[in-house]
Specification:
By secondary structure, the protein is an alpha/beta fold. Helices cover 33% and strands 15% of the residues. The protein has twelve helices and twelve strands. It has a seven-stranded parallel β-sheet, sandwiched between helices.
Length: 334
């Protein structure tokens, strides 16, 4: 007997409570494993689906949409949507929703960790202890720390604004560049100044990237920009891999123009860019004393991932019930 409920496909593992919620309103087909389905498998499952819940490893384009003619809504359990063809969704009158507000706090939290790891030589320190050569008491690794240093934040959207209060206790000098966010929009209690791009680049001891991946930010941090940075600057990238040119970053580390690079995101992850590299620049991985990397942990907090998936599920149900989903990126025209 054919179900009268709309069919939704969940491409990655989610908590059972999310599936229970969806099951009250939909026929649910879900990936039960912790591994990503291939695009071919997602397409096979979704070709007759009414709704789809997607995650950052996924990618949706025009051809996928044409192969799934019943789709009414694609709910992203994510904030950044650069791996998805939003224009094609709008053209085919398919809702595309995101979860805009839940990822900022955990990503900012991780960013502090990236900063501290390079600012205080933590990976090197861990290696010394594990080597068995540490005799105690005498410090052998010296770093610049954060106090009295200048931390520049490129981008002051939700991520940047979540980072500022988490940095204030380190007694660093905070500055940012974002023409769309004047100081009047920030908390008057924050001790941070707005500067132009050139000043930010030239005067920051640490530069934190907090911008979305858009055509104008693709490889924004390249050889020319890095050459203008303060010599010995430490670059931190928790936003999108392709905001930097990883080859140029490796070159700058080798010649000591940059003294460190920490990242949670990588160019190879940006599926929508056909020319993206297939692997992280090998030289970055080899420079263990000047780089620190995490495997896209920005929002990887158990309770946060639950809330993100639940909000995406709510968006799915709202759209399938004929309502305007709360996380919509655009309004559909009749």
């Amino acid at each position: 007997m054919t179900s009268s409920l709309p069919k939704v496909v969940v491409t990655h593992w989610v908590h059972p409570e999310i599936l229970d919620f969806l099951g009250q309103h939909c026929e649910v087909v879900a990936n039960p494993t912790r591994e990503s389905w291939t695009k071919a498998e997602i397409l096979r499952q979704a070709e007759d689906a009414d709704g789809l819940m997607v995650f950052m490893p996924d990618s949706i384009d025009q051809d996928f949409l044409e192969a799934c003619p019943k789709l009414k809504v694609i709910a992203g359990a994510l904030r950044g949507y650069d791996n998805f063809d939003i224009a094609a969704c709008r053209e085919r009158k398919v809702w595309f929703t995101i979860v805009p507000d839940l990822l900022a706090a955990p990503t900012a939290e991780l960013t502090v960790g990236l900063l501290l790891n390079l600012a205080r030589c933590l990976p090197d320190g861990d290696a010394v202890i594990r080597s068995g050569k540490f005799a105690g008491w005498r410090p052998i690794l010296f770093s610049q720390g954060l106090a009295n240093k200048t931390i520049g934040i490129l981008g002051m959207g939700k991520l940047g604004q979540a980072l500022v209060p988490r940095l204030e206790g380190f007694e660093a000098k905070l500055q940012y560049c974002d023409p769309q966010v004047p100081p009047t929009q920030l908390s008057p209690q924050w001790n941070i100044r707005a500067v132009n791009f050139e000043t930010l680049i030239q005067t920051s001891d640490y530069l934190v990237l907090m911008v979305p991946l858009q055509p104008e930010t693709y490889h924004l941090i390249d050889h020319a920009v890095i050459a203008s940075m303060k010599t010995g600057c430490v670059l931190i990238n928790p936003c999108r891999g392709s905001v930097v040119d990883e080859v140029d970053v490796a070159d700058a580390l080798e010649c000591r123009q940059l003294s460190g690079y920490a990242a949670d995101v990588y160019e190879m992850e940006d599926w929508a860019i056909s020319s993206r590299p297939m692997h992280i620049e090998p030289r970055l991985l080899e420079m263990r004393n000047r780089t620190f990397f995490t495997p896209h942990l920005g929002s990887a907090v158990e309770s946060v991932r639950f809330d993100i998936a639940m909000e995406a599920a709510e968006n799915l149900v709202q759209a399938l019930q004929g309502k305007i989903p709360q996380g919509y990126l655009f309004k559909l025209k009749n």
